[in-house]
Design brief:
By secondary structure, the protein is an alpha/beta fold. The protein folds into two domains: 166 residues, Spore Coat Polysaccharide Biosynthesis Protein SpsA, Chain A (Alpha-Beta Complex), CATH 3.90.550.10; 82 residues, no CATH class. It contains seven helices and 13 strands. It has a seven-stranded mixed beta sheet with strand order 3-2-1-4-9-6-12, sandwiched between helices. It has a four-stranded mixed beta sheet with strand order 5-13-7-8. The chain has a two-stranded antiparallel sheet with strand order 10-11. Helix 1 runs parallel beside helix 2 and helix 5 packs parallel to helix 7. The chain is globular and about 55 Å long. The N and C termini lie far apart (61 Å).
Length: 254
């Protein structure tokens, strides 16, 4: 039988990890690639029979490649990457078990519902939010040049599933702001490595472009007041990213 292993990256995810693993118990095994959690995450995972691997966090691409290697060692033919704040519905689990029987497909894109402080997003780039999460273990790796919003390099054809992942990514507006602040810092490093320079007009054009892209082009207006909030904040953090990039270049001159 085809062996499917669900892999989860964790760092202090005690709040989510129990329900996350329970949604994945249809798989042959669940592994945690844990970055030395100290909040009880691994204890909860062990109680649910998950395999625990520990490694220092460098970036998301490296962490996922490490998890892939560990899944292969356990005999995985397919790996399903699941975030701690995501859930696999029974309908999706059933569809996965059918999809992996297709010998012509090396990976599958999965649509995802993003749920922000109780609201299921319908626009703004947050839906259908396809994620390439199900992949043949022997033909997949992650591009280490992309440290955030990592990309799968797949040797073969990818298909699309119909059933959804559920992503409880933000419990509150405060949590959203904290995570976007962290993403902004990671994005600054990526832009600097690429040699991107900040022009005087960048502080106006890039935030406006981001707001237009999310609110108009990607129909963020469909989410009402929450959509306006989220699109405005994404525009704001785009500005913050370029301000920090400028500061980083200036600090290097001192």
């Amino acid at each position: 039988m085809t062996k499917v292993i669900v892999a989860i990256l964790t760092k202090n995810e005690a709040h989510h990890i129990g329900d996350c693993i329970k949604s994945a118990q249809w798989a042959d095994a669940v592994i945690l690639e844990d970055s030395f959690s100290d909040d009880g995450t691994t204890a909860i995972a062990r109680s649910l029979k998950a395999h625990i691997f520990k490694s220092e966090f460098i970036n998301f691409a490296v962490a996922r490649n490490t998890a892939l290697n560990n899944a292969r060692r356990l005999g995985a033919e397919w790996v399903f990457f699941l975030d701690a704040d995501e859930r696999i519905t029974p309908e999706l689990a059933q569809e996965v078990q059918t999809a992996i029987r297709n010998p012509k497909v090396a990976g599958w894109w999965i649509p995802r519902y993003n749920i922000m402080w109780g609201h299921t997003m319908q626009g703004g780039g947050w839906y259908p939010d396809y994620q390439l999460r199900l992949m043949r273990a022997d033909v997949a790796r992650y591009d280490t040049e992309r440290q955030v919003h990592e990309i799968v390099v797949l040797d073969g054809q990818a298909g699309h599933l119909k059933e959804h992942l559920l992503h409880y990514n933000y419990d509150s507006l405060t949590q959203f702001k904290k995570k976007q602040n962290r993403y902004a810092n990671l994005e600054v490093e990526i832009l600097k490595e690429k040699g991107v320079r900040v022009k005087p007009w960048t502080y106006l054009t890039m935030p406006l472009r981001e707001f237009y892209r999310r609110y108009i082009s990607l129909q963020g207006y469909r989410d009402g007041w929450i959509g306006l909030q989220v699109c405005t904040l994404m525009s704001w953090y785009t500005l913050i990213t370029y301000v920090r990039l400028r500061n980083l270049y200036q600090a290097g001159k001192e």
